[in-house]
Write a structure and sequence with these properties.
The structure holds two protein chains of two kinds. Chain A contains two helices and four strands; from the N terminus they run βαβαββ. Chain A is an alpha+beta fold. Chain A starts with a strand and ends in a 5-residue tail after the last strand. Chain B is elongated, with a radius of gyration of 24 Å. Chain B has 13 helices and eleven strands. Classes of the chains: A alpha+beta, B alpha/beta.
Chain lengths: ~80, ~350
C-alpha cells in the first residue's frame, strides 16, 4: 500500500473527479490518494464517484479554502 | 449460466438516459455508464462559483443517476477533441451555437471506441424520436448510428419499437417486446415509466445540460471569436464566459465584472493572466480586462468598475489597476452613471 497526492486545486467539477479517476486507474487496491481541491462541489462529487466505482473516501479535511479528500482505492475490474 | 451481455449507456444526468439504462438492467444486461465532459456542461461550475448557489443542494446529476441505477460511471474528458465539433460542426448549429447532431455523433463514436477497448457488446442512449428538434428526429437518428460507426450496435430502448431492430434485438441479447415506442416532445411516457421504476427526484434540465443551448452564452462565445478574429477557444475562455457580467465597451477590450464574492474569488485565480482592477476606496468587484488597452481604455474601464462598486453614487472612486507586467497604479475616477452605459455594451 502506498500513499499518493493529487493537486486538483482551481479545477471545477467535474474535473477534480476526472483527474481522480485517471489517477486511481494507475493505482492498486489499497493505495491511498489525497486529492487537494478548491471546488466545494468536490466534497460531494468525489465521494459519489467513489461509491459508484467501488472506492472509499476515508476522510475529508478542510485546510482553509482547500479540501483534502482521501480515497482508498478499491478493487479495479 | 452465460455471462450477461454488456452495454455502455450514455448518461447525461437527465431522465431519458436514466430510463434507457434502467430498461437494460431490467433485462439482465450488465450496464456501465459513460459521461462526456466537453467544458460546456452546465453541471457543477456555476453552482460552485456563485455564493448564492452554494446553499443549494449540489450534485453531479450523472453520478446521481449512476448511484440510483447501481452502475459504474466513467467520466471522460473530451475538452480538446470537442473543440472541432463546436468550431466546425458538419451539420451546423441549432438555435444557438449548439452543434447538437454533431455532438451526438461524436459522443456515440467515442462510446463505440470505448466498447471496443473494454470488450462491451453494444451502446445504449436515451434518444427518443422527435424529442429534440436538431438531433433527435426520425431522419437524424440513422445519421447518428451511421456517422458514429456504431451502426446497429446502437440501441435506443425508449423508441426502439419505432426503429428497425438493432443487433442486440436481432441476436436476442435483449427482448424487443420489452422495449418502448416513445415519440415526440411529450414527457408523459417517460414520467410514467419513471414512476413505475420508483424514480421521483430526477433532473429535468431545460434545453439539455449544455451551455451552448443558452442564447446569452452563445452571444458571449460569438463575441469572443469575433474579437479574436478567429474561431478558437481554450478551457479558461469558456469557463470565464460562465462567470460575471461581460461588457464590451470598445472593440479592443472586454470587461468581466464579478457580481458577488464567489465570482470575485473565482476571478482572482486569473489575476496573473489578465490586467485587472478593483476599487480601493469602496467595496466593489474584481474586474478582469480581456484585450490590449490604452490609458484611455483603462480610464473608461475604471469608471465602469466604479459604477459596479458601492461607490457608484460617490463623486470619486479610487480604482487600483494592475497590469500583467507588474505595473500598478490607482486611478481616481467619477463612476459612470447607469444611463450612460449603452445597453449594447452588455454581452
Amino acid at each position: 500500500m502506498s500513499r499518493y497526492q493529487l493537486d486538483a486545486r482551481r479545477l471545477l467539477c467535474p474535473l477534480p473527479v476526472i483527474r481522480t479517476q485517471e489517477r486511481v486507474e494507475q493505482l492498486g487496491e489499497g493505495d491511498m490518494l489525497d486529492v487537494i481541491c478548491t471546488d466545494p462541489g468536490a466534497r460531494h462529487d468525489i465521494p459519489a464517484w467513489c461509491r459508484v466505482n467501488g472506492h472509499e473516501v476515508t476522510g475529508i479535511e478542510e485546510r482553509g479554502d482547500e479540501l483534502v479528500i482521501t480515497v482508498r482505492v478499491g478493487a479495479q475490474t | 449460466m452465460p455471462e450477461p451481455r454488456k452495454a455502455v449507456a450514455l448518461i447525461s444526468g437527465g431522465l431519458d438516459s436514466l430510463l434507457a439504462a434502467k430498461v437494460m438492467l431490467e433485462q439482465g444486461i450488465h450496464v456501465e455508464g459513460i459521461n462526456f465532459f466537453t467544458g460546456f456542461c452546465v453541471e457543477g461550475h456555476t453552482h460552485a462559483i456563485r455564493k448564492k448557489d452554494r446553499a443549494r443542494p449540489k450534485r453531479n446529476n450523472a453520478l446521481w443517476v449512476a448511484e440510483q441505477l447501481g452502475i459504474k460511471l466513467h467520466i471522460v474528458d473530451v475538452i480538446e477533441e470537442y473543440k472541432d465539433i463546436v468550431i466546425n460542426p458538419r451539420h451546423g448549429y441549432g438555435a444557438n451555437l449548439n452543434p447538437c447532431l454533431d455532438c451526438k455523433v461524436f459522443m456515440v463514436r467515442k462510446a463505440r471506441q470505448w466498447i471496443e477497448e473494454h470488450g462491451f457488446d453494444f451502446i445504449v442512449t436515451g434518444e427518443v424520436i422527435g424529442q429534440r428538434p436538431k438531433s433527435q428526429r426520425a431522419d437524424t437518428l440513422p445519421v447518428v448510428a451511421h456517422e458514429s460507426g456504431a451502426g446497429d450496435l446502437l440501441l435506443r430502448p425508449l423508441c426502439a419499437k419505432n426503429l428497425p431492430p438493432s443487433r442486440p434485438e436481432r441476436e436476442g441479447w435483449v427482448d424487443r417486446d420489452r422495449l418502448f415506442d416513445f415519440q415526440g416532445r411529450t414527457r408523459k411516457p417517460q414520467m410514467a415509466l419513471a414512476r413505475k421504476f420508483g424514480f421521483t427526484d430526477y433532473a429535468q434540465p431545460a434545453g439539455g445540460c449544455c451551455f451552448l443551448t443558452d442564447a446569452q452564452y452563445s452571444v458571449k462565445l460569438a463575441d469572443l471569436w469575433k474579437a479574436r478574429g478567429e474561431r478558437r477557444y481554450e478551457l479558461d475562455d469558456i469557463m470565464l464566459l460562465k462567470v460575471g457580467r461581460h461588457l464590451r465597451p470598445r472593440d479592443n477590450f472586454k470587461l468581466i465584472v464579478g457580481r458577488e464574492d464567489g465570482e470575485n474569488r473565482f476571478l482572482h485565480g486569473y489575476r496573473k493572466q489578465f490586467a485587472h482592477m478593483f476599487p480601493v476606496s469602496h467595496k466593489g468587484p474584481l474586474v478582469l480586462i480581456d484585450g490590449k488597452v490604452s490609458d484611455d481604455d483603462l480610464e473608461l474601464a475604471a469608471r465602469l468598475t466604479a459604477r459596479f462598486s458601492q461607490g457608484r453614487d460617490a463623486e470619486r472612486v479610487d480604482v487600483e489597476v494592475r497590469l500583467p507586467d507588474g505595473r500598478n497604479r490607482v486611478l481616481h475616477v467619477q463612476p459612470m452613471a447607469g444611463e450612460d452605459v449603452p445597453k449594447d455594451w452588455y454581452l
